[in-house]
Amino acid sequence: MEKSAAKTRRFCIGLLAFVLLETASILAPQKSFGAVSWQYLQGLRLRKTEKYFFTANECSFAVNIENVSPDKISAAINDLPQGASFVRQRKENYISSVGTSESYGTRLIMTFKFDAPGSYQFRAIDVQVDTWWAHIPFESVYVYENPSTAKPKISITFDDSRFTAASRTLEMSAGQHLKFTLNIRYATNVYDLSWSIPENSLFKEVERFDITRQSINSDEFNPNTLPVATFDWQPLSEGVYNFPEFNVKAISLGGTRYNVVVPGYTVKVGPVAGRHYLDDDDEPSLYANAFSDYLESPTQKRTSYDEVEDIEALLELHKAERYSIPFFSSARTERRKIESDAGLNSADWEPSIPIMIVILAVLVVMIVLTVLFFILHRIPNAALCLAMSVVFLGLGVFYTHWTLKKSALFTGGEISQVPESGSGAGVFISKGSLVNIQKRTDNWSYIRCNDTYGWVMNETLLPIE
Predict the structure, then answer these.
(1) Chain centroid, CA 269 distance in Å
(2) Of 155, 173, 270, 331, whose CB is crowded by the most CB atoms within 10 A?
(3) In this structure, what DSSP letter does residue 138 have?
């Protein structure tokens, strides 16, 4: 009996203690995590944790859920867009940076990887918080190609809205100007830019931009397309042209040097738009204004030049400079003075034939010494002479090529778009200008003067030989 009574007393005391503890827990102030409303959950959104997402990198979205502990949250991923793969889900304790010290919560982090660049939109995840179920959506995201492996890409924009980068065939009229800009992406610097243009056309570089003169800061990723240079191209005659060919060398965001491919286009050039053919009874006075002098406004200043009077004397100075050693002849100084007075642009130096002969002579001597030293088994001397031979060989090839280029003085006048009389391009070259002869026919020569190309009669050229 006594054991039964003691057991009953212990049971009653335990029951009373349990009731008191439960009552105290209900009446005591709550400092633990509290539940949130369904409306609050509906306003949440998973957002990017980094400014930019890149392929082959782990990229995360995160959302902060206030006043809920991690153990009371569960989340389920739905179908993923193609190209995205799930990496991990993570829940962290979160302390709000605003509010009181009692403002706690959970930071839910979802991490993914992407195989290809492009825009991605995920389906909302299913989240259970306490007894509430909610769908929390992702913000849309654009994934960029990984900078460490991305190659620079060139694109072209045209000033004329009729032409788009997607078009591979452009149609225009002879004499029409085609102004366009080269743009580059995923590059910090363009360190080499050159081009070659089709015959029977004029070409001019209008503007060159910062990326060709200095390196753009590569510490921070720049997703924008940056301009490289703007050009103006003018086909002069009818026909089918290939777009000017560009050689572009650039440094990628990862620091690698690349030869960048420029998109190609086919250009179909039709007849000159609005061409007017004169009848015998047309009034010549209609065109008199085209040949009148421009009026000079009081605020304008015009630089005047004296035309070269004795082009034969200028030709003799070119020849004298070519057959003399630089710094030991006054021919160059006299030639440059005449060209400066006439407003002409030409090369600073004429290639010197004596220097070419000296270079080739030294090359022959080095080759002979190389062979001789090898025969005598004086290997160090032979190796030195062989290295000098290679140097002078490269120098000789370059200098000989420069010296043997066909050049001439132009007697002045209009160039032609095709080797036919009466097909002028409206471009004049001054008397005494130095031109390079690209090709010749029986009566015509295709010449280059600075960035201007065209056909002229052979009789208008005075060769420098």
Answers:
(1) 27
(2) 331
(3) B
Residue carrying the six token digits 């209009």: 414
Side-chain half-sphere CA neighbours of 161 within 13 A: 0
- 282 burial class (0-12, 13-18, 19+ CB within 10 angstroms)? exposed
Torsion over CA: 410, 414, 419, 420 (sign): negative
**Phi and psi torsions of 273, nearest 5°:** -70, 130
Q: Work out the pLDDT band at 415, boundaries 50, 70, 90.
A: confident
HSE (CB half, 13 Å, CA atoms) of 234? 19
Q: How far is CA 374 from the centre of its chain?
A: 51
DSSP string, 392-418: HHHHHHHHHHHHTS-EEEE--EEEESS
CA distances in angstroms from 425 to 377, 413, 431, listed in the order given: 65, 11, 17
pLDDT, tens digit, 9 for 90 and up, residues 293-320: 434 444 444 444 556 667 788 778 778 8
pLDDT (tens digit per residue) in 158-192: 988 888 877 788 998 888 889 999 999 999 899 88
Give the pLDDT confidence score for residue 286 in this predicted structure: 38
Q: How far apart are CA 107 and CA 248, in angstroms?
A: 48
CA atoms of 410 and 412, how far apart (whole Å): 5
**Taking CA 229 as the corner, what is the angle to CA 227 and CA 234, rounded to the nearest 5 degrees?**
130
On whether the CB atoms of residues 410 and 429 are closer than 8 A, the answer is yes
Task: Dump pLDDT digits (tens) for 69-123.
Answer: 888 888 988 889 999 999 999 999 877 665 544 567 899 999 999 999 999 999 9
CA dist 426 and 176 (Å) reads: 12
Q: Taking Cα atoms as reference points, which of 300, 296, 298, 229 lies closest to residue 260?
A: 229
The answer to whether 111 touches 59, Cβ cutoff 8 Å, is yes
| Residues contacting 393, CB < 8 A, separation 6+ | 363
Beta-sheet strand order (sheet of 452-457): 424-429, 413-416, 452-457, 444-449, 433-440, 407-410, 461-463
Task: Please report which confidence band the pLDDT of residue 425 belongs to, taking 50, 70 and 90 as the band edges.
Answer: low
CA 383 to chain centre: 44
